[in-house]
């Protein structure tokens, strides 16, 4: 059907069935988007008949010979509410997402839905992600998607919150409630609030690599808003948090990797103190657990660099 450029409701239903069986077929997702684009297209359509006498709808697209097949013997042009249809598609995506939250193509399609809306539901989407993280807070795709959503929220602070859609596909917060609290919600979305959120998720699970990674993306912007004394204090607090994480599980490399990044970041500021802090910390850990290969590895790396400073 895709090769024949058939963009009908029947075709849309077919993609639904295929994707429910296997959500990783990216060509089907692409085809589904093409179908939705044509259905939602505001351009005029005219009826034509093929040589078998069946009715086809041809779009007036400046020479584009794409046709939209219809199974109805009589076709009427119905007015389509674009926002409602995309919200319905978002609900359908939510139900599928619950079954496979690690599908890249599903997250990609979800972003397309929101970007295609006249009134994107970014604020409700952030709440959906919060709910999703209760299921799996280490999902890399979810964190990557969260960064995109937060950026959209910051770039589009005039967006109106309307008709929240939860992860289970049901309507969430009432439209009235969203509108009343939308301004307050917008003010709460910031680099600092996201930075605090990563701390919360890291404390829940020190092995949450995605949360550590997101924190490394946010820290430079947080520090940029602080004075020299406050910035130094925050770095010290980061080191203490790293120590707690490492002491909790010597075999977990996530905190060490964040410490590596922090060393590189402070080195760019001509501050080499992190290397010596790392050596001291590794020494203490090796006294407690001399057979820790991971600790010895990070100790060796820091010693090699420190000798060159």
Automatic annotation (TrEMBL):
<dbReference type="GO" id="GO:0004663">
    <property type="term" value="F:Rab geranylgeranyltransferase activity"/>
</dbReference>
<keyword id="KW-0808">Transferase</keyword>
<dbReference type="GO" id="GO:0097354">
    <property type="term" value="P:prenylation"/>
</dbReference>
<protein>
    <recommendedName>
        <fullName>Geranylgeranyl transferase type-2 subunit alpha</fullName>
        <ecNumber>2.5.1.60</ecNumber>
    </recommendedName>
</protein>
<dbReference type="GO" id="GO:0005968">
    <property type="term" value="C:Rab-protein geranylgeranyltransferase complex"/>
</dbReference>
<comment type="similarity">
    <text>Belongs to the protein prenyltransferase subunit alpha family.</text>
</comment>
<dbReference type="Pfam" id="PF01239">
    <property type="entry name" value="PPTA"/>
</dbReference>
<keyword id="KW-0677">Repeat</keyword>
<comment type="function">
    <text>Catalyzes the transfer of a geranyl-geranyl moiety from geranyl-geranyl pyrophosphate to cysteines occuring in specific C-terminal amino acid sequences.</text>
</comment>
<keyword id="KW-0637">Prenyltransferase</keyword>
<dbReference type="InterPro" id="IPR002088">
    <property type="entry name" value="Prenyl_trans_a"/>
</dbReference>
């Amino acid at each position: 059907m895709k090769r024949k450029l058939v963009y009908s409701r029947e075709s849309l239903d077919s993609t639904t069935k295929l994707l429910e069986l296997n959500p990783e077929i990216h060509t089907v997702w692409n085809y589904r988007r093409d179908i939705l684009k044509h259905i939602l297209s505001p351009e005029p359509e005219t009826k034509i008949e093929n040589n078998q006498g069946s009715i086809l709808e041809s779009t007036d697209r400046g020479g584009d010979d794409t046709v939209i097949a219809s199974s109805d013997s009589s076709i009427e042009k119905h007015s389509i509410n674009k926002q409602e249809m995309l919200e319905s598609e978002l609900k359908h995506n939510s139900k599928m997402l619950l079954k496979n939250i690690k599908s890249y193509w599903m997250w990609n399609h979800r972003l397309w839905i929101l970007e295609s809306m006249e009134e994107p539901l970014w604020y409700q989407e952030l709440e959906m992600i919060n709910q999703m993280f209760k299921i799996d807070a280490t999902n890399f795709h979810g964190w990557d998607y969260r960064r995109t959503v937060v950026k959209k929220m910051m770039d589009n602070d005039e967006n109106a919150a309307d008709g929240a859609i939860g992860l289970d596909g049901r309507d969430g917060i009432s439209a009235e409630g969203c509108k009343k609290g939308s301004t307050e919600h917008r003010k709460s979305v910031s680099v600092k609030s996201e930075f605090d959120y990563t701390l919360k998720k890291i404390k829940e699970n020190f092995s949450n690599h995605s949360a550590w990674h997101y924190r490394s993306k946010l820290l430079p912007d947080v520090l940029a808003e602080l004075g020299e004394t406050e910035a130094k204090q925050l770095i010290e607090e980061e080191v203490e948090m790293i120590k707690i994480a490492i002491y909790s599980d010597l075999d977990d490399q996530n905190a060490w990797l964040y410490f590596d990044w922090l060393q590189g970041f402070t080195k760019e500021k001509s501050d080499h103190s992190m290397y010596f802090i790392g050596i001291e910390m590794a020494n203490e850990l090796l006294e407690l657990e001399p057979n820790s290969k991971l600790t010895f590895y990070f100790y060796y790396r820091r010693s090699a660099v420190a000798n060159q400073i």
